[in-house]
From TrEMBL:
Family: Belongs to the universal ribosomal protein uL23 family.
Organism for this UniProt entry: Acidaminococcus fermentans
UniProtKB keywords: Ribonucleoprotein, Ribosomal protein, RNA-binding, rRNA-binding
Gene3D superfamilies on file: 3.30.70.330
Subunit structure: Part of the 50S ribosomal subunit. Contacts protein L29, and trigger factor when it is bound to the ribosome.
GO-annotated biological processes: translation
Gene Ontology molecular function: rRNA binding; structural constituent of ribosome
PROSITE patterns: RIBOSOMAL_L23
Gene name per UniProt: rplW
Annotated protein name in UniProt: Large ribosomal subunit protein uL23
Top-rank taxon: Bacteria
């Protein structure tokens, strides 16, 4: 896997459900498909300078979509739910 933590963490996922999870100190990110839990933990700790307690990963399959007679598929992606230690927050999500 890539040595750069920013190659592992692609983007934060902010929805109504993930915003509710932030109250429990859980943050959701889209991550590289080949990344494992240890690499995700190290990347989050390096980028945001926080202590990670737990990492859960989910592989999300892309939906099949139709436009008239044509059919296409959204890309698959991997999602990581990261629980931080008490007192740690990610400033990117402040004010949400």
């Amino acid at each position: 896997m890539a040595a750069n933590p920013r190659d592992i963490i692609i983007r934060p996922i902010v929805t109504e459900k993930t915003s509710d999870m932030m109250k429990d100190n859980k943050y959701t990110f889209q991550v590289a498909m080949g990344a494992n839990k240890t690499e995700i933990r190290q990347a989050i700790e390096a980028i945001f300078n926080v202590k990670v307690v737990n990492v859960n990963t989910i592989r999300v399959l892309g939906k099949t979509k139709r436009m008239g007679k044509y059919e296409g598929k959204r890309s698959d992606y991997k999602k990581a739910i990261v629980k931080l230690a008490e007192g740690n927050t990610i400033p990117l999500f402040e004010g949400m």
